[in-house]
Amino acid sequence: MELLTNLYLLLSFAMCRGQRSSCDRCDPRLACDCSHAGYTLVPTVTDRALTLDLSFNDIAVVTGGDLTGHEKLRILILHRNRLSEIHPSAFDSLWSLEQLDLSDNQLTAINRRWFSKLGALQELNLLHNPYSCLGSRPVLQRLRRLKRLMFGGPALEELRRRDLSGVSQLEELTVQANNLRRYESGALADVWPLGRVTLSLHGPFLTNIALASDVIGDVSYPETPIILKDLHLNQSVQPFREMVRRRVRRITFCNLSVSDKGIVDFLEAVDGEPITSLFMDGVTLIGEGRWEKARLTDHKNIDEFFLRNVVVLNVFQFSSLLQLGFLLQYPRKVSIINSQVFVMPCATTHLLLNLQYLDLSDNLLTDLTLTETLCNGDGTLKDLRVLNVSGNALKSLSTVSRLVTNLSKLTHLDVSRNGFISMPGGCSWPSTLRYLNISWAKLTTISPCLPETLEVLDLSNNDLKAFFLILPSLRELHLSGNKILSLPPGWMFPNLQTLTIQSNTLNMFTRSDLQAYRRLQDLWAGQNKFVCSCDFVYFLQSAIKGGEDVHLSDGEDAYVCDSPLYLRGEPAGRVRLSVVVCRRVLFVSVSCVVALIIGILVCVLLWRLHAFWYLRMMWAWLKAKRSSRRRQRREELLSYDAFVSYSERDASWVENFLVPELEEPRENDGDSLNPRPLTLCLHKRDFLPGHWIVDNIMSAMERSRRTVFILSENFVQSEWCRYELDFSHFQLFDGETGSNAAILILLEPLSKDDIPKRFCKLRKLMSSTTYLEWPREEERSGEFWRKVRNALRDEEEEEEEG
């Protein structure tokens, strides 16, 4: 049969291998959540996964290769699938597996080969599968590290002594044995120590008294809490006598249906036994509360009663608890939770002689019925230290304070989840009160009603907008879920160590805000609408790295930017802000200084290069060129025959030779007409004093028919001569001025190659214009001057002909 099963699995695997889907829903912690995805086969996931959740799918088969390569996997959850077949070697590669959940499937048999390689397994859940026994051979023998074991289901009928062979100790054992029919005595007895036992015993199991006694007896130890589920305690309580005989101290009943007779029988069964705690969760009381038949029993060892989710079917016929003094006078802790209690008569309260802890949360108490329950605040419960009336219908905080003011030992008071709207201006509290919880109310302001003796105060989830109250003894303050805009002033709480202020409307807080809290150690301030300014981001990142005395206990991911808009949703601890954003004033100042320095340097450079002169020269030339009446205006402006451009070092030649020769009248030298004296413009003589020299140069050239350049080594070395040459170059290429506007005179031999490249205009002129050379022989000077005059006259004649 096993061979056929393996063959079937291999064939199924071969047919479906190419159809396996992949699952990529893995978080940064390598926990892959592949649940509720409709998978019919085990999907492929990364082999680095540590947790794989495949619950609530339709997987029917796990083949031998589905989980190959997952040596790092620690948790595998296959809960609530249609799993009916698992290959014997399916889990062989899971050497690191610590938790395996196969519950709520269709496994009809447990194969010991599944667990043969799972030496690291600590938790195994086999609940709610239709197997009738754990196997013909021990299946858990190699699970030496197992700490939590859950097995059983509706089809489990047999437990043998060797079934748990190899399991030596457990922290938790859960057995669902509602239909168990055969139990070999001692099957569960070898597991020791045993931390906690949960037995589901509903059905015909309890009708077999011997069988039930054996099971309960095998797991009953004084220090082992026992949880019995799904019981109908209206039958014989004989199975529990074995548990009592083993001196079990803590018993819990879950989903218990009990009659008056069942309670009386149970109380008689545990008469005088050392049971210290009795818990009942999910109790249905069928009777009328007639338990006085057990009034002679002794239960002085019972220290705690815990009742939750109690339903009384015949509530209007249920008798008073006044006859239960034999049961209520001993416990120090009583909890009646979510049981629709609307009042506990004062007479019943008087029966709780040793009560130190009272929990009446999630009931129907009002201000009036609480007054009755606490006997109008007369201090009946003189030893009460903890009172929990949260989740009721209380409206008046002043009434509560009045009722507890005489509880001289009260240290803890929980009135959360009630309907308090306002807080009175003054209240009276017991001087011993240290813990007060008024969370989940509707308070909008606080007042000096709060006692100064408080060490822990919880005002979470109200409508507070601010908190200003001096509480010198306070160590913990919880203000989450309000509308507070800023941290409360730290000087009001000199001993505060923990502050929670999550989910408010905080924009930011600073180092100085926290320094005001002299002893603050833990701050929970995430989930607020933070403005991620530079100061806040830098401070927060410093605090996250441990650079501050206060620890941000809720982690950096809780601090998320709400503004500015481009940072919304980003964790403030990972935001990187630029210097432009964070040091804007400094950045603008430095930028302005740098721009000013660069501007000054550029201006100095342009000044040194006389760029402004070039710009003005170009502007003047462009304006003159675009004018439609330019030639007429030029004729009117002409005052000189020539502008003489020369170096100051050549001034003696100009003044001693050029000026006398051209400006002074001359005798006829053979021409038909006596030459007219020429008018020259010299900068030393004709420039207007007080005007910018560049303006003088431009004006002189504009008012002269020609420009005479006296070329020499001195000319080449003069910057001003270069400017005059450049402006003349504009006129030279101006169509209206003529192509002979410049006359070059060489005082000394000077070739084009001798001229520096920066005198590019002069090099071009010497290439395109005929120049005159000053003769070294005196007899040739007459011919030289004649050529000069002819050159100047040619310009004049051309203009007259035009």
Automatic annotation (TrEMBL):
Membrane topology per the record? Answer: Single-pass type I membrane protein
The record's PROSITE patterns line, in alphabetical order, gives:
LRR (PS51450), TIR (PS50104)
Question: Where does the record place it?
Answer: Membrane
GO MF term set? transmembrane signaling receptor activity; triacyl lipopeptide binding
Q: Which Pfam families match?
A: LRR_8 (PF13855), TIR (PF01582)
InterPro entries cross-referenced by the UniProt entry: Cys-rich_flank_reg_C, Leu-rich_rpt, Leu-rich_rpt_typical-subtyp, LRR_dom_sf, TIR_dom, Toll-like_receptor, Toll_tir_struct_dom_sf
* Residue ranges of every copy of the TIR domain listed in the record: 638-792
Per UniProt, which keywords does this protein have? Answer: Disulfide bond, Glycoprotein, Immunity, Inflammatory response, Innate immunity, Leucine-rich repeat, Membrane, NAD, Receptor, Repeat, Signal, Transmembrane, Transmembrane helix
Taken from the UniProt record, the cysteine pairs bridged by disulfide bonds within this chain are: C26-C32, C346-C375, C427-C449
Q: Which sequence ranges are marked TM in the entry? A: 585-607
Cleavable signal peptide: 1-18
Q: What coarse category fits the chief subcellular location reported for this protein?
A: membrane
Record's GO cellular component terms: plasma membrane; receptor complex
Report the record's Gene Ontology biological process terms.
inflammatory response; innate immune response; toll-like receptor signaling pathway
Q: Which domain of life is it from?
A: Eukaryota
Matches recorded under PANTHER family: TOLL-LIKE RECEPTOR, TOLL-LIKE RECEPTOR 2
Similarity remark: Belongs to the Toll-like receptor family.
Question: What biological function has been recorded for the protein in this entry?
Answer: Cooperates with LY96 to mediate the innate immune response to bacterial lipoproteins and other microbial cell wall components. Cooperates with TLR1 or TLR6 to mediate the innate immune response to bacterial lipoproteins or lipopeptides. Acts via MYD88 and TRAF6, leading to NF-kappa-B activation, cytokine secretion and the inflammatory response.
Q: What is this protein called?
A: Toll-like receptor 2
Please tell me the species this chain comes from. Answer: Champsocephalus esox (pike icefish)
Phylogenetic lineage: Eukaryota, Metazoa, Chordata, Craniata, Vertebrata
